[in-house]
Design a protein that fits this description.
- With 164 residues, the chain is α/β, with parallel strands linked by helices.
- The protein has a domain at 19-126.
- Helices cover 32% and strands 32% of the residues.
- The protein has two helices and 15 strands.
- It has helices at 2-23, 127-156; strands spanning 27-32, 36-38, 43-50, 54-56, 59-60, 64-67, 71-73, 78-79, 83-86, 90-92, 97-98, 102-105, 109-111, 116-117, 121-124.
- The strands form two sheets. Strands 1, 3, 5, 6, 8, 9, 11, 12, 14 and 15 form a ten-stranded parallel β-sheet that branches. A five-stranded parallel β-sheet has the order 2-4-7-10-13, with no helix packed on it.
- The radius of gyration is 26 Å and the shape is elongated.
- Residues 3-9 and 11-24 have low confidence and may be disordered.
Amino acid sequence: MGFLSRHLSMLSFVIAFSAATFANTPREYTHFGHDISIGPGEEASEATCFGCTVRVRGHVAGDVTTFGGSIVVEDEGEIGGDTTTFGGDARLGKGVKVGGDVTVFGGRIRRDPTSSVHGDVTNFGGGVWILLIFGLPLVVLGAFIALIVWLIRRLLRPAIPAPA
């Protein structure tokens, strides 16, 4: 019984420690096609959105990233890390603080004069950047597949006997 009770008490300690450790951890958001909203007084560790918008009114300790969506930070919201959007806009409202860089590919940056960015602000506006970032790799992949198909067809072509 001593062996069993000792292991049960150790297991209960591990479970209690794990619950206490993860109970106060800020949430990490990753959504596909469904907007993320971090309200006033809320905290998140990071936010990543594919095909949707991230709206921050609270605090994000790490990075905020969107692909095909926008980032809106308002009401003195804070982002501790980088803010990056591909194919969307970034809007930084009154009193907003960003601890890292703000980078926008294929969109625009709208920034209130009272907002502060502690890193670099980079804007690659226009659809040309989206085409280069997403289109060029697809063209290269398509050309590689076409080359493989052409080589296989050439190797499998039946040999034509020489006329006698």
